[in-house]
């Protein structure tokens, strides 16, 4: 047996015990407030708009470069 490794046998959890554990863990969840949710949604929307404009610009630039290169051939 490798030094420092101790094998522990896992015991099976009953469905009732599993449900109790899930309920206990779910009670620890801290949900965001309405204001935090709205602020996050606004931030995400603005970021998506900025990134979509950025990638549209990059795509248009590369498209123009490719069209120019194709006219040379």
Number of strands: 0
What's the helix count? 2
Give the percentage of residues in beta strands.
under 5%
Biggest sheet, open or closed, and with what strands and sense? none
Rounded to an integer in angstroms, the radius of gyration calculated over CA atoms is 27 Å
* Low-confidence sequence ranges: none
Distance between the termini: 70 Å
Determine the mean pLDDT: 91
Which structural class should the secondary elements be placed in? mainly alpha
Write down the overall geometry.
Answer: elongated
Please write the string of helix (H) and strand (E) elements: HH
Task: Kindly state the percentage of residues in helix.
Answer: 55-70%
Give the secondary structure arrangement, pairings included.
Layout: H1 15-26, H2 34-72
Please give a structural write-up.
With 73 residues, this protein is mainly alpha-helical. Helices cover 70% and strands 0% of the residues. It is built from two helices and no strands. It has helices at residues 15-26, 34-72. The longest helix is centred in the C-terminal third of the chain and has 39 residues, at 34-72. The mean pLDDT is 91.
List keywords for this structure.
0% strand; single chain; 73 residues; mainly alpha
């Amino acid at each position: 047996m490798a030094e420092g490794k101790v094998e522990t046998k896992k015991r099976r959890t009953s469905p009732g015990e599993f449900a109790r554990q899930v309920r206990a863990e779910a009670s620890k969840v801290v949900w965001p407030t309405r204001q935090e949710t709205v602020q996050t949604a606004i931030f995400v929307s603005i970021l998506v708009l900025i990134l979509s404009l950025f990638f549209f610009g990059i795509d248009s630039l590369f498209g123009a470069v490719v069209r120019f290169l194709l006219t040379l051939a």
